[in-house]
Design a protein that fits this description.
Layout lengths: L8 E7 L5 E8 L2 E8 L5 H16 L4 E14 L5 E13 L6 E8 L4 H22 L1
Antiparallel strand pairs: 1-2, 2-3, 4-5, 5-6
Length: 136
């Protein structure tokens, strides 16, 4: 039997022109949720992760709460100088009745924009765990 999946569609990832805020809009089967993350310094990755958690939080039923624990960018190069960048994210999921939050991990390759990769990494950490909560 197939497990239900939580796979919202990323409809908008936008950094404001003054680079002070990142907006993320997600669409989950017609339910649209927005989140916003303030940029501290020039850390748009963290702001994108915060915005994603806020948007997903709006899709969750009562009794669940998400927060971004950390986001890290890792760059790896091989002997030829070629390499890849990866964003790893940890999200804390608090549920009613549990004393301690669960830490969920996600990762995504950076293809062009670190903000897009941060959103994808954040969602990657949430997909399997949140499917039962959202899809019942």
């Amino acid at each position: 039997m197939l497990q239900p999946t939580f796979r919202p569609i990323i409809s908008v990832i936008r950094v404001t022109p003054d680079r002070s805020c990142v907006e993320v809009n997600l669409d989950m089967e017609g339910m649209v949720a927005s989140g916003f993350g303030n940029v501290i310094g020039d850390d748009t990755m963290r702001a994108a992760g915060v915005a994603t958690c806020e948007a997903v939080d709006r899709l969750l039923p009562d009794g669940y709460e998400l927060s971004l624990a950390w986001v890290e960018l890792f760059k790896r190069t091989d002997d030829t100088g070629e390499g890849h960048a990866v964003i790893n994210v940890a999200v804390e999921l608090r549920t009613l009745g549990r004393a301690h939050p669960e830490t969920l991990l996600g990762a995504a390759l950076v293809h062009h924009d670190v903000e897009v990769a941060a959103v994808r990494a954040t969602l990657d950490g949430l997909t399997r765990r949140l499917a039962p909560a959202i899809l019942g």
